[in-house]
Structure to design on (212 residues):
């Protein structure tokens, strides 16, 4: 079972998401929260596999909560907010994906949850994907990726380049003739050296669109 916490200050949206996910036979809702502060407290106690996190909430919003939460669980942003800065800030804070309400079906959401928890994908709605692409295009006009100062070894640079191309751990393992476990170890060290917690944040750091 995949344990999930749903965080949204709108009670109608919150209950709707809970009802939607309860239909999936491999998803268990372990908690709900109405703001980021409550979500962080609950996550520290319950350690859910994934947190579905809204952006705009009172007290501690989703962007501020994404960092502490991503140190505990996988975080998938789920919001009506299409502001580019909010999308970039959420991903840089550690979110594994960003979905906008109305752009996905119930089945799409369940698949996204499974993929994020399994580390297979970083789901992005069209508007979020556009923001990421524009950030990458903007970064490509500057110094090339792999610049000095990131502290990666030669092998880690090879792995990071493939991550930036959207390759999975298995695809990287096949391409570099390594075991998938070895690739996972490289990815963990890359995250530690870049000071990030997700693939999306690692790519942003690698391409120079996020601060250390």
């Amino acid at each position: 079972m995949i344990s999930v916490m749903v965080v949204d200050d709108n009670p109608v949206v919150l209950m709707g998401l809970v009802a939607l996910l309860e239909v999936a036979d491999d998803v268990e809702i372990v908690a709900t929260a109405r703001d980021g502060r409550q979500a962080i407290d609950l996550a520290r106690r319950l350690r859910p596999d994934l947190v579905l996190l809204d952006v705009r909430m009172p007290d501690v919003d989703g962007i501020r909560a994404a960092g502490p939460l991503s140190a505990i669980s996988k975080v998938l942003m789920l919001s009506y907010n299409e502001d580019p800065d909010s999308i970039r800030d959420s991903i840089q804070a550690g979110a594994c994906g960003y979905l906008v309400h109305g752009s996905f079906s119930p089945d799409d959401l369940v698949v996204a949850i499974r993929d994020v928890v399994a580390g297979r994908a970083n789901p992005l709605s069209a508007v979020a994907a556009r923001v990421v692409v524009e950030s990458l295009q903007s970064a490509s006009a500057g110094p090339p990726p792999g610049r000095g100062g990131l502290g990666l070894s030669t092998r880690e640079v090879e792995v990071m380049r493939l991550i930036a191309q959207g390759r999975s751990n298995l695809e990287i393992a096949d391409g570099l003739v390594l075991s998938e476990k070895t690739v996972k170890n490289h990815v963990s060290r890359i995250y530690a050296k870049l000071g990030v917690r997700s693939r999306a944040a690692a790519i942003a750091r690698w391409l120079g669109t996020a601060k250390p």
